[in-house]
Amino acid sequence: MFEKEIEELKKDEKLREVIDKVGEINFEWSETNHFKNLVQSIVYQQLAGKAAKSIWKRVKERTEITPEQILKNDLTGTGLSQRKISYMKDLASKFETFGDFSKMGDEEVINELTRVKGIGKWTAEMFLMFSLKRLNIFSKGDYGLRKAIQKLHNLPAMPKEKEIDKYAKNWAPYKTIASLYLWRWLD
After folding, report:
1. Domain membership of residue 104 as a residue range
2. What is the CATH number of the domain that holds 48?
């Protein structure tokens, strides 16, 4: 999968070394239920994987993951903080007003999603990458990607968000694939 795109990315000498070292990546996309993906993103925010997985399981056991059911059901006792419950309810109340994400540009999707309490730019960018399968997303604020660029270019410090474009611009229009390789390289 993505052989042509990976060959294009390998034109960048430094990224080629990363791709060769990492080897083949299994590209895993999220399921196509966008609401469910966003709710899961809220659940997983700032939690260790095991704890988040356990809470997510309890939420799914408690309720069907639809805007109507999230608004209707009491989610206390699932391990979610009151703040996250309020974020999920805010998402549920606004979700039907969003329109068709597949017909929106990247910035339009980010602007729509960041109107929801608890969804910031990073979460919106991950949604673009993994739910909408947009191939040219590079989350400039992502700690791991900034750390990878620092390591890749032997920089004394992590680059600031505004400096990222000069490193990532050559990876267009496949910045998402470059991101996946950089994350895996850091693991």
Report:
1. 34-130
2. 1.10.340.30
| 76 and 122 co-located in one domain | yes
Q: Is 142 annotated in the active site?
A: yes
Q: How many residues does the chain have?
A: 187
Q: Does residue 167 sit in the same domain as residue 96?
A: no
pTM score: 0.89
Tokens of 155: 């920089």
Identify the residue whose tokens are 């990607």.
Answer: 145
Q: What percent of the chain has pLDDT over 70?
A: 100
CA separation for the pair 181, 179 (Å, rounded) = 5
- How does pLDDT run across 19-38, given as a tens digit for each residue? 999 999 988 787 789 999 99
Catalytic-role residue among 90, 100, 106, 142: 142
- Same structural domain for residues 13 and 40? no
Q: Quick one: 143 and 173 in the same domain?
A: yes
Q: Which residues contact 72 (CB under 8 A, 6 or more apart)?
A: 63
Q: Cα separation of 106 and 133, whole Å? A: 11
**Of 88, 95, 92, 74, nearest to 42 (Cα)?**
88
